[in-house]
Amino acid sequence: MMKMERNTVKDLKNMMISAPDEKIGELVKQQWLTFDPNHGLGDLEKMVVKYAALTGKKPVEKLKTAMLLMCGDHGIAKYGVSAFPPEVTIQMINGYIGGSAGANVMARHANADIFITDVGVNADLTNLSQVINCKVAMGTEDFTHGQAMTREQAVEAIKAGMKVANDCIDQGYNLLATAEMGIGNTTSTAAMASAILDLPPELTVGRGSGINDERMAIKRGVVAAGLKINAPDPNDALDVLCKVGGYDHAGLAGMILAGAQRGIPSMVDGVNATAAALIAYGINPACADYMFCSHLSEEISHGKMLEMLNLHPIVDAGMRLGEGTGASLAIVILQMALDVYNQADLKGAYDA
């Protein structure tokens, strides 16, 4: 088993990810300049040029977005690190199925199809036909007493995310978007950020679901304990993931890797998704080229995480909900930018 796991990790590290097509990007940029010679639309131009370079062809007229909502419970949620109990994970999943959650509303505005995926929910969801069953385990272990998952489980969860992403790409989706649900996941995210960025919990633990000062102290203590007992290796992304991460993180990391391998960009949501992006980047750095950063989260570690990935947020709206909400907002802007490229004739519309 260990030999198989090592070979799989080696395959992930060595998977072929093509560099962006700079010739296509330059062509699209020159075409853009014919109607916007003064760069009056700012970052919209950069978004369209990047999308073209990543896909290797003229920008599509319409995005077809698959939003992969990776769900997994976290063993440390029992300590009260969130404003909500662990049982809320399954309640939220039922809301997504019914289309009534705020994330559903925003995804509809973005014309994004949500694929609810169980990677590690602490409940049997096999009776829910609307949920893709990729369960690796019934939630992670309590990482204050040992690692959250085994390396084999981490790889299995990454591969699950890759499979769902590849299935979506095979169906013609030309953009992937991250989304996640798992009570306690910002605690795991903070621990991962501390390990990778070499920062103390005081600089990575945020208020997440809106916790008070008392819960904040507990959350910091949980992160500190997990880091102390597990000593995750910052130079080994898989080690960080399996020691203090979550199955939702692993699934999203796999999604990003699969998209990059297939030449399909990923719209990365907030702080939890960015932690997953850091894991994907640590496994295969070339995948960072295929990421769009949707927004700047209010969670305190997010800016530092984006710096490591050299990503710049499309939106800064004070958001920190996660669940793909920031990604939906940014997708609307990306679609608008593509519409400008494909439909507008703004030459002469700017003052000299």
Automatic annotation (TrEMBL):
GO terms for biological process: cobalamin biosynthetic process. Pfam families: DBI_PRT (PF02277). CDD domains: DMB-PRT_CobT. Its EC number is 2.4.2.21. Pathway: Nucleoside biosynthesis; alpha-ribazole biosynthesis; alpha-ribazole from 5,6-dimethylbenzimidazole: step 1/2. Keywords: Cobalamin biosynthesis, Glycosyltransferase, Transferase. PANTHER family: NICOTINATE-NUCLEOTIDE--DIMETHYLBENZIMIDAZOLE PHOSPHORIBOSYLTRANSFERASE. Belongs to the CobT family. This is Nicotinate-nucleotide--dimethylbenzimidazole phosphoribosyltransferase. The lineage of its organism: unclassified sequences, metagenomes, ecological metagenomes. The gene is cobT_9.
